[in-house]
Design brief:
The protein is an alpha/beta fold. The protein is built from nine helices and eight strands. It is globular.
Length: 224
């Protein structure tokens, strides 16, 4: 088994950015499980299945072929063999991913690939239930979070920088609603693993937060 680092936390806390930077610093493979669920969301939306029809999702997800490969050090998410990196970050896909990721049929579909990657490589994996469900025996577990105000402000600035018209109040409301959904869903709800280290990044930049993660990894997994 490779060295496994599990990073969990709410939407908008910066898990993906921090995990990528930390993985690069320690030469681990970064596995973005959220991107895999987003790819599933794209698959379902292409079938005409929306978040308003969750009863159609269990059957609709069965023929999805989702995998990850690396090209020049960059993660590429494949859906039915197609690179969908450019399609998985829209708001519609985000909302659909939140809905479908709560269903056991969808989670079971993706679970084996995630564990296989972690068994064969030194990985940093981030998501909602990595330390509690996907990699319960991970050597390093981190619950990375930030206050709703900080997360909304970051998201607002990101959208504005892209020229997207948006409302801070609406973004904050969406974050709170998603937090509630993720924490209260029946299957694998968002929660901090008992043996996870809490890392609040409300007042940290990405580099500082990644540095804190690297320090935790090096303390728990001494270099040979």
């Amino acid at each position: 088994m490779g060295i496994q680092v599990a990073i969990d936390g709410p939407a908008g806390a910066g898990k993906s950015t921090v995990a990528k930077k930390a993985a690069q610093a320690v030469s681990f493979i970064y596995v973005d499980t959220g991107a895999m669920y987003r790819a599933m969301a794209v698959h379902l939306l292409r079938k005409g299945i929306t978040a308003d029809a969750p009863d159609r999702i269990p059957e609709g997800c069965q023929d999805a072929d989702i995998s990850i490969r690396y090209e020049n050090g960059e993660q590429v998410v494949l859906l039915q063999g197609e690179n969908v990196n450019s399609l998985i970050r829209t708001e519609e896909v985000s909302q659909m991913a939140s809905v479908c990721s709560a269903l056991p049929e969808v989670r079971a579909k993706l679970l084996n690939l995630q564990r296989k990657l972690a068994d064969e490589n030194d990985v940093i994996m981030d998501g909602r239930d990595i330390g509690t469900v996907i990699l319960p025996d991970a050597q390093v577990k981190i619950f990375l979070t930030a206050g709703a105000d900080a997360r909304a402000e970051r998201r607002y600035k990101e959208q504005k920088a892209k020229g997207i018209d948006c409302s801070y109040e609406e973004i904050r409301k969406e974050i709170e609603e998603r937090d509630y959904r993720d924490m209260h869903r029946e299957t694998s709800p968002l929660k901090q693993a008992e043996d996870a280290v809490l890392l609040d990044t409300s007042f940290m930049g990405p580099e500082e937060a990644a540095g804190a993660v690297v320090d935790l990894i090096r303390r728990k997994v001494p270099a040979e």
